[in-house]
Amino acid sequence: MTSPAAIPEPQEAARLVPTPAPALSIDGVSHVYGPRRALIDVSFNVQPASFTALLGLNGAGKSTLFSLITRLFGIQSGRVGIFGHDISKSPGEALRLLGVVFQPRTLDLDLSLTQNLLYHAALHGISRREAAARSADLLGRIGLEDRAGSKVRDLSGGQMRRLEIARALLHRPRLLLLDEPTVGLDVKARADIISQVRQLVTEQGIGVLWATHLFDEIVPSDDLVVLHQGKVLAQGPMSRVITEAGAQDVNTAFMRLTGAQTMPGGGA
Amino acid sequence: MSSITTREAPRGFSAAEYMTCLTGIVWREGLRFLHQRERFVSALVRPLVWLFIFAAGFRQVLGISIIPPYETYILYEVYIAPGLMAMIQLFNGMQSSLSMVYDREMGNMRTLLVSPLPRGFLLFCKLLAGTAVSLLQVYAFLLIAWFWDITPPSSGYLTVLPALILSGLMLGSLGMLISSGIKQLENFAGVMNFVIFPMFFASSALYPLWRVQEGSPYLYYLCEVNPFTHAVELVRFALYGQINWISLAVVAACTVVFMIGAIWAYDPSRGLARRGPPGGE
Questions:
Q1: What is the distance between the alpha carbons of residues B252 and B246, in angstroms, rounded to a whole number?
Q2: What are phi and psi of A249, to 5 degrees?
Q3: pTM of this prediction?
Q4: What ipTM does this complex have?
Q5: Which is nearest to B176 in space by CA: B107, B229, B221, B125?
Q6: Phi, psi of B4, rounded to the nearest 5 degrees
Q7: Which residues of B touch A106 (CB under 8 A)?
Q8: Does B28 sit within 8 Å of A102, measured CB to CB?
């Protein structure tokens, strides 16, 4: 039984151009811990094949937001969608398109690199044979193929991070979340990881949400979301955010935006 | 509306994917167990201390009359063996819960919980994996106990297996339920004091309940409603090829209740959400 309204008129149908769902859509999300408001009406999108930097100081609400997107916490209000799949209503379909690198290390230190990857693959229902092939391929791409059998404990901090990124890509997600992935790494390891992730955006069209408080990790072509005390203060292409804040660089723009919260009338 | 938003077609999960996930979780738990040899040794030493020292010392103090499932007079060591088997599982279940708190702190739990498969299924896999590890410990104990003249009928080693699986699941899901309420590692000491010791001592593991009843009727009732008593009795009867139906019913019912409780507590919109901000903030 089809109601007449369900069939669009010819001219209306022509106007209905299907637009692909954003890789990640955050829509009016708020979250409280008891009396403390961690997120207040947060909304933004991450497009496929884009690098979006989520910029905020410690305590801005970045980790809470990540916990909501990865379904560690339930959504209290608002909506989170991954390629159109509502994380609360169809978590399985949403999570299978999502790869995530958490801020704390989440590897099994006593298991080998390959064992860590195989375990992750199993959690995504990827057969052992397929998983072994993908693991070998990914280890090759991050230059750790000769360490496949060593214990993770013996890796350096930068190598562990690269392994975690490889692991997050094992099930071929199309959205990748990284929560301050370069914290505690040296300059070279940081540069390696940033270029590895940027390559994923340009070559594989993966949408990336990169949470950071380090301004030098962002380049002008990136999209920016400025999160401060649980609120989105600015969003859009980096150049626009800087111009709108009346600043010359992202550092000043950020200080002006966040400083404006505590110093009314200040800035400019 | 001038545009419509498309979304990826949902494709669900096949039985093979569920199976891969289950074997992967059990495999990982097994690997971790092999890497923690001291955990295996201490899991074995604990019941052996009870068996070699406590039971030997107590043998003369406590006389055991003929009670089912035993058909002859038995030594005290023989009486407490099933209790010690259940104790191994009790400790293992609580230790798995410790590992979940630890995992959650270390972030490993996050890896598990962002799997796209249903969360209840993931937790069930985790329980099965923990139970499998407890079976290894129990059979290693039985092997050593055999040299100590604790020799149940050889078919008993097989008939006790389903009982051990069920009691392992019950104690594991109880541990998981408790772990969902623990925020910090140190609280495991509290679990020892308030859960493990009372459950173990207020049960039929160390003394038959009719003797308890002579001493204190109240303690007897407490022992009767203690699910651990029924885990012990289920294992005791199964080891001699018999079924204690009441214990089976109690253990099965408790398993279901604890498991539903644990899955409920790990639901993102409930248990976990009540906690404070994540560690990373």
A1: 10
A2: -140, 170
A3: 0.84
A4: 0.83
A5: B125
A6: -120, 150
A7: 106-108, 110-111
A8: no
Distance from B166 to chain A by nearest Cα, in Å?
Answer: 24
Q: Which stretches in chain A have pLDDT values below 70?
A: 1-18, 260-268
B21 Cα to chain A: minimum distance (Å): 5
Distance, in Å, from the CA atom of B40 to the CA atom of B219, rounded to the nearest integer, reads 33
Q: Which residues of A39-56 are buried (b: 16+ CB within 10 A; e: fewer)?
A: beebebbbebebbbbbbb
Of A21, A72, A98, the CB nearest to B5: A21
Q: How far is CA A113 from the centre of its chain?
A: 23
**H runs (alpha helix) in chain B:** 15-35, 37-49, 55-58, 76-106, 108-113, 119-147, 156-181, 188-191, 197-201, 209-215, 217-225, 227-239, 245-265
- Name which of A73, A126, A66, A76 is nearest A98 in CA terms: A66
**Cβ contact B268–A74 (<8 Å):** yes
Between A and B, how many residue pairs show a Cβ–Cβ distance under 8 A?
167
Residues of B in contact with A92 (CB under 8 A): 12-13, 116-118
Residue carrying the six token digits 């001699």: B240
Q: How far is residue A105's CA from residue A109's CA, in Å, rounded to a whole number?
A: 10
DSSP helix/strand/coil, B2: coil
